[in-house]
Amino acid sequence: MEKEDQKTDAAEKVRLEYGNEPSTVEKTAEPTIEEIQAKIAETVRTAAGEHSAMTPAASVFALVPKSRQETITALLDEMAADERYADIKALTTDSGKVFFFSTTYIQADEAVAKSRIEEAKVKIAEKVRADSQDRVKLTPAGDLQELIPETERYRIAAILKEMQENPATADIKMVTASNGHVFFYSDWHMSNYYALVLSRVTVKDPCATIAAMVRDESRVYPRPTCVQFFMEDLFEIPPCDLKAIVDETLKKPEYGDIKMLVHPTTGGVYLYSNRYLKDHMAAVLMDWQEVGREANP
Predict the structure, then answer these.
(1) Distance CA 182, CA 144 (A)
(2) Which residue in 35, 251, 257, 291 is a FRET match for 108, CA 20 to 30 A apart?
(3) Which strands sit side by side in the sheet containing 182-186, from one edge to the other?
C-alpha cells in the first residue's frame, strides 16, 4: 500500500512539474515598419525590373500585417519621404485603382500606359477567379476582350501571356478545347484536370467527352468507369439520353478501344479502354468497385 502511495505522489509531482514548465511555443514576431517598407520596395522593384510590370495596391497591402492595416497610409507616406525609396511611386487610374512602380525600371510616362494594361489585368484576374470559384465555369477568351482598353485589344494574347508569367497572376491558366476555342481558369479554385474536363464538355460532343474520360481513368488510376458517373451535372448529358450516347460511342470506329462490361451480380455498367487496361483486369477492378469494396471496408 505504501508503495502505491509513493507511486501516486511521484506521478502527481511529475504532473505538477510538467504543468508548470514554461511553454516552448513562441509567437512569431511581427515585422518592424522598416522591414515592411523594405519588403514593399523589394516587391515593387522585382515586378518592375524582372517583369516590367506595375504592382497592384492589393499586392502591396497584403505585405502589411493585419495589426498594422490602419497605418498603411502613414507607412507609405514615410516611404515617400525616405530617400532610400525615392524610386517607389504610386499612380491612380481614372477608375480609382492604384498601382506602384519603380522609376529605376519604368519611367513616369510609360507607367501611365502600363497602368491601363495592369488595370485590365486586374479586371481579367478578378473575372476569371470569380468564374472559377463562384460559378465553377471556364471563362471564354471572348469574354475578356471587353475588359481590355480598345486601343490594346490587338495585344490580348500578349497581355494574357504576361499575366501567366507574373507571380501575382500566375494562377490564371489557359485551356484549349478540341475545336480550338480558348478558355481561362484560376488554378487557385479549379484543378487543371477539372478545367480540361470542362473544356471537353464545351465542344458539345458527348461521345468524345465520354471516350476521353474513360481513357483517362483507364490510363491514370487504372480503373474502369461506371457509366452512371456521366449523369453528373458537369457533363450536361440528360439521363434519358445516356444509354443512347454510350451505345453510339461504342459503335464509332475512332473509339474502338472503348469497351463495355456489365457486372453479373449487380448489373452495374462500366466502360474501359483496352489501350490501357486488359480485359481480365478491367473485370477484376469492376468487381472490386461493385462488391469487393463494401465487403472489405
Answers:
(1) 11
(2) 35
(3) 139-140, 182-186, 172-176
Backbone Cα Rg of the chain = 29
Whole-angstrom Cα distance, residue 282 to residue 260?
Answer: 10
Residue 67's pLDDT is what?
80
- CATH 3.40.50 is held by the domain 33-106: no
Q: pLDDT tens for residues 211-246?
A: 999 999 999 999 999 999 999 999 999 999 999 999
Pairing relationship of beta strands 139-140 and 172-176 according to DSSP bridges? unpaired
| 3-state SS assignment for residue 258 | strand
Pick the CATH number of 119-190 from 1.25.40, 1.10.10, 3.30.70, 2.60.120: 1.10.10
Q: What is the structure's pLDDT at 297?
A: 62
Domains 33-106 and 119-190 belong to one CATH topology: yes
Report residue 98 as a C-alpha cell.
Answer: 492604384
Could you give the count of Cα atoms lying within 13 Å of 185 in the half-sphere of its Cβ? 24
- pLDDT band of residue 16 (cuts 50, 70, 90) is very low
What's the CA gap between 251 and 272, in Å, rounded? Answer: 14
Domain range annotation of the chain = 33-106, 119-190, 205-295
